[in-house]
Amino acid sequence: MGGVRVLVGTRKGAFVLCSDGKRKDWSVAGPYFPGWEIYHLKASPVDPDRIYASQSSGWFGQLIQRSDDGGASWQPVGNEFAYKGVPGTHQFYDGSPHPWEFARVWHLEPSLDDPDTVLAGVEDAALFRSCDGGKTWEELAGLREHSSGSSWQPGAGGMCLHTIVLDPSNPQRIFVAISAAGVFRSDDDGETWRPVNKGLRSGAIPDEDAEVGHCVHHLARHPSHPEVLFMQKHWDVMRTDDAGESWTEVSGDLPTDFGFAIDVHAHEPETVYVVPIKSDSEHFPLDGKLRVYRSRTGGNEWEPLTRGLPEANCYVNVLRDAMAVDSLDECGVYFGTTGGQVYVSPDAGDSWAPIVRDLPSVLSVEVQTLP
Amino acid sequence: MIRVVLPGQLRELAHVGKEIELDVKGEVTRRSVLDALEVAYPVLKGTIRDTRTQQRRAFVRFFACEADYTHTSADEPLPAAVATGEEPFFIVGAMAGG
Known about the structure:
The structure holds two protein chains of two kinds. Chain A is mostly beta strands. Chain A has a single domain (45-334), classed as Methylamine Dehydrogenase, Chain H. Helix content of chain A is 0%, strand content 39%. In chain A, the strands form eight sheets. Chain A has a four-stranded antiparallel β-sheet, with no helix packed on it. A four-stranded antiparallel β-sheet of chain A has the order 4-5-6-7, with no helix packed on it. Chain B is of the alpha+beta class. Chain B has three helices and five strands. In chain B, a hairpin with a 2-residue loop joins strand 3 and strand 4 (67-68). The longest helix of chain B is centred in the middle third of the chain and has 11 residues, at 30-40. The interface between A and B is medium-sized, with 15 and 20 residues.
């Protein structure tokens, strides 16, 4: 039986939570980088001791930290994220042109086969790559320079590239999601990109089924079905079976289809988890009841998972990168809340328990399954 | 030696105490102090001023001798008391919540 290491990014530092395969007793280490916003931490899938962390501050800017010993120690690596050429403008909230300005790294996605290679999704939306363990970063400018780039506009959290999905069966293919532009796909290792948003409908944009302009909140996929992706959009849960060429809504019987987080069971490609949130103005669960919903049918039919979760007076949010699964025999599911709780279900969602209750507001949760 | 007081988050990043000492060559200005600071502690590059434009980060302030040097020219000499080490040069995170 292996163990798990949960990497938690919060508004005021990072935490590392460890347990054995039972996932009952936990050690808590941290805060690392206290006082800094840690938008995301993620480990290399080929070197579990190699972890990258995005450390940022409204006062002191962006750093990337790297650990080569599983999070026990960290070293700052590169912090230069320079857009290529003259970046031009995108739309601001009021529709006026606004210069592209780097704000922070939202998401780090280590390569599936090289621990020194890692992608970074940033605000204002762009994709960067490091091939030297995070020391230097180069923009994959074909994305930002897409002909639609000048029309992209920020979502409420900023104009961020927040999701990066790699394809284990095709190293040339990358999906990214941008709020509020939508999903883009590259089939040439990030050189060129095209929007893949057909089927998305968003009431808050002038042309509700436009090619670009959708506020996609998060994507998830199962590694054995790389053509199938699930999406939590601003409103609507969606799926594609053809790598984004077309999307269909699978919100089905969810009580509300607004939300941020979405993930897929490690061993059941059609088992999907979401955390329904009341609305885009009321970022908390319906009726004060924190419930994960699970579909075992790839969407449309959803069941509430409640055992061990607060069933009253709970008004936290679960952010887009704050849900993850482990790959132990009985799949564990994890999520963190803006109230500082991190929950684990060691039985695929049937029951839940808090690992910690009182961390700073949780921005991201990733899980490593250790041998 | 020039005495510099860093904000807590940058102290932690640079693994230093509240106050550090820097050997600043030539005239003691904000620019020469920050140049020396970044040479001594490369991890601080980009945290106080932009690495390319050298512009101060919006929420960083510079104080010395009970005066605000945030908006003065980067090449203006700092007070003699800072240059002699009698008074420290303060790098401060602006009071902006958090």
